[in-house]
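tl;dr need the bound structure. longer version: we got a ligand (heme C) that a collaborator sent over and nobodys looked at where it sits. i said id run it. heres the input, straight from their email, havent touched it
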Amino acid sequence: MKNIKVLWAIITVLSLILAGIGYQFVVGSVITAKDGRIAIVLTKGERNFVLGEMRGLLANMQQLVSAAADKDIDKTIRIAKKLIDDSKGAKQLSIIAKTPINFKRLTNNIHAQFKTLYSDAVEKRDPNHSLKQVSIIMQNCIVCHGAYQLTELNK
Ligand code: HEC
């Protein structure tokens, strides 16, 4: 009897831990920002890391627009490949754990679209098609920036 009680206690504790992890995965670490957006709470280092990645994204988007204007499909292919490689880089698990599920979804969405941009550019070699895809990719930037902010812990 005693053993069964201990077993149930262990099962209960483990279930609570799992529920906690699940909750964290869905909700992330967030507060409501002053302007009404959702602010993801990161350490200074994590926030700087994400902002650095963001500035890289903006630069790559500019390069993609310029490649399309020049009808330089090889450049489009190069940049798309770079975007895929960059998003494969060392995953910052501590940051991922703090982002809400919708943020993770937008991130996965944009990464999937980088892959399609690359494979379509290789197959179709059509700068107009690629430019349209870039414009659709940028809708993720707009949606995410409209909903989320990054804030530093202990600020
Ligand atoms: C999944 C969400 C998400 C996506 C997708 C996203 N961003 Fe961001 N980005 C953010 C957040 C959050 C911030 C911080 C905004 C704030 O704190 O006000 C940010 C900030 C930035 C900044 C400011 C960097 C700085 O140093 O202050 C730039 C530039 C930027 N993003 C570019 C882009 C571009 C270009 C894209 C699309 C190709 C993009 N982002 C897609 C979430 C996203």
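gonna send this back to them w/ a short note. The radius of gyration is 21 Å.
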